[in-house]
Design a protein that fits this description.
The chain is 15% helix and 25% strand. The chain contains four helices and 15 strands. The strands form three sheets. A seven-stranded mixed β-sheet has the order 8-9-10-11-12-15-13, with helices on one face. A six-stranded mixed β-sheet has the order 7-6-5-4-3-14. It has a two-stranded antiparallel sheet with strand order 1-2. Strand 9 and strand 10 (167-171) form a beta hairpin. Helix 3 packs across helix 4 (229-235).
Length: 271
């Protein structure tokens, strides 16, 4: 895929030739803008990585909030979140594809998948015509593994990082190990961490997730990828600042973020 070199895609791009449909060109242009941003997080870099993406009326652009604006995070179950910016950009993470879990009803602008397993890659459940970002492509984000054996058991896993309304959010996908110093350096300063706690075969255990949370030191940590109370109790063990929400949504702006770290548990029934 052709990437812009500091400007819009030109007609020299072989992928753009013969594409007369303006909507098709717009989608390709949007995809390339996103990919060019994500390339900043390639493994060869050791920079903190968190770049805001906004979509307004189908067009991608860089956006810097002049006044504090809240981001809305809604858990749809498993590892699927709908993240909505104050301007209406919707990002769907790791779509689960399950029929017994909530699904998004509004058109999505961006869909991310941490790996290719079905419960994290069911992009067909996203309404609209979103740009799909597969984390295990060359434009992937912070590279990680699905297990403790460098991916030999269950493959690779990508950690996506978003800056939305100046709030930096990291989605760990199906992380299967503690983070390395290089991965932590690539992540940078994370405001909200979406961390799996199912444990055992699929992800880090709840106690390991607690250690990962300490490694990242976010201002808010939201557990995901679980469906029983015992996992929550093990994850929050010894933690003094725990908030149990009545609804699976969190709306918060940058100035409202606490000092590290609040654990925010969304209701897992029917999730």
């Amino acid at each position: 895929m052709c990437l812009p070199s500091g400007r819009a895609i030109t007609q020299d791009c072989p992928y753009c030739q013969g594409r007369a449909n303006p909507m098709t060109n717009m989608k390709w242009r949007a995809a390339n803008w996103v990919l060019s941003i994500l390339l900043l997080a390639m493994p060869t870099r050791v920079l903190a990585f968190c770049h805001e993406i906004e979509v307004v009326q189908g067009r991608f652009m860089h956006a810097a909030a002049s006044t504090p604006a809240p981001v809305l995070i809604e858990w749809l179950g498993h590892a699927t979140f709908q993240i909505t910016s104050s301007k209406g950009t919707r990002i769907l993470t790791d779509p689960h594809g399950a029929f017994d879990l909530p699904r998004p009803t509004l058109p999505q602008h961006i869909v991310t998948t941490s790996h290719q397993h079905g419960p994290h890659n069911s992009v067909h459940m996203a309404p609209g015509t979103p740009v799909i970002l597969h984390g295990l492509t060359p434009a992937g984000v912070v590279p990680a593994f699905h297990d403790k054996s460098q991916g030999m058991q269950r493959g690779k896993n990508a950690i996506f990082v978003f800056r939305v309304d100046d709030v930096c959010i990291a989605h760990l996908g199906d992380l299967g190990h503690l983070l390395t110093p290089q991965q932590l350096q690539m992540l940078g300063k994370i405001d909200i961490l979406l961390v799996p706690i199912a444990g055992g075969y699929y992800t880090v255990t709840a106690s390991e997730a607690r250690e990962v949370t300490k490694q990242v030191n976010p201002k808010i940590a939201i557990p995901m990828h679980f469906w029983w109370e015992q996992a929550v109790q093990e994850y929050i063990q010894g933690t003094l600042r725990v908030k149990m929400l009545n609804a699976p949504t969190l709306k918060i702006s940058k100035p409202e973020l606490p000092q590290p770290t609040d654990i925010v548990v969304m209701p897992w029934q029917q999730r």
